[in-house]
Amino acid sequence: MKMLKKTFSLQDAIQNKRLALFYQPRVSAETLKPTGAEALLRWQEDEGQWSSVPDLHRLSCDEFAELWKWKLGQVKEALNLIREQCGYYSQGVPFVVSLNLSHKQLHSYEWATRLLRMLAESDAPNECLEIELTEHHGLRDLIVEESSFEMAREAGVCLTLDDFPEGGQSFLRLAQFKFDKVKIDRSLVPTAADSAKVWLTKKELLRGLLAIIDRMGASSVIEGIENELHYKFLSGLPVHEWQGYYWGKAMPLAELLLMVPLNEVSANSRRAERVGLEPRMPQ
To answer: Per-residue pLDDT tens for 244-267?
Structure first.
């Protein structure tokens, strides 16, 4: 008889180390090198497999606050490891880790104050962190939201609108808040079930959305690039970054570190370690 999966409990998952952040890389549309990664929450089921957390939206506001504190602790460790093994920058461009923010956290400033405290404790450059906001539940307290966004933006944290244009509030969000980056939802990427006409139509829709994003002064990401056909068909679009299975699925931090481009200092350090020398700073 097939065993039923255990109901998700945040307290149980944290206490028994059944929660983890996996990281899905993003790549530059220009160089095709990793530029950052989205931190995605994973839960270890009773069978030992890692999967998305079931019914995450059912958590209370207090539970989301607890989860946010845990996630910030994990990202702090990740940023420190990136610094130690790879350096924060490659060719002068920061490697950015992004965290998803729940709409249930927007009723207070706590998420922003905790975020800035974590950055101060980790010594990571603030531009190495990105906050992704998805809103499918309508606008809440705009005054609190805007103020907390400004706290993060003034500190140099990148603010991203996720899943654009999914949800009835996406265009309103884009108009009311200045986002640094906008991620176009995977639903607009053609699928094998789509006709040739739909493929062409979706490509033109993507082109139009990218033009809107550009006029708003934000950079752009297209999600859901899952194979070479997707990439070749859409590669002519004026997008800044790609994300999807074609570039890598969500993976443990140790695997991500193997993909992070080295900066000059880190590259010299690794070469020195291989030959048993002390690392030297470049002249």
So the answer is: 999 999 999 999 999 887 664 444
Residue 115 CA to residue 67 CA, distance in Å, equals: 13
d(CA 54, CA 71): 17
Task: Count CA atoms closer than 13 A to 14's CA, side-chain side.
Answer: 12
Each residue's pLDDT tens digit, 162-188: 999 976 677 877 887 889 999 999 999
Cβ pair 247, 15 in contact under 8 A? no
Does the residue 236 lie in any domain? Answer: no
What's the structural domain count of the chain?
A: 1
In a domain, 6, yes or no: no
Give the CATH number of the domain where residue 64 resides: 3.20.20.450
**Distance from C-alpha of 57 to C-alpha of 48, rounded to nearest angstrom:** 23
- Report residue 122: phi and psi, to 5°: -90, -15
Tokens of 185: 């939802």
Buried b (16+ CB within 10 A) or exposed e, 41-75: bbbeeeeeeeeebeebeebeeebbbebbebbbebb
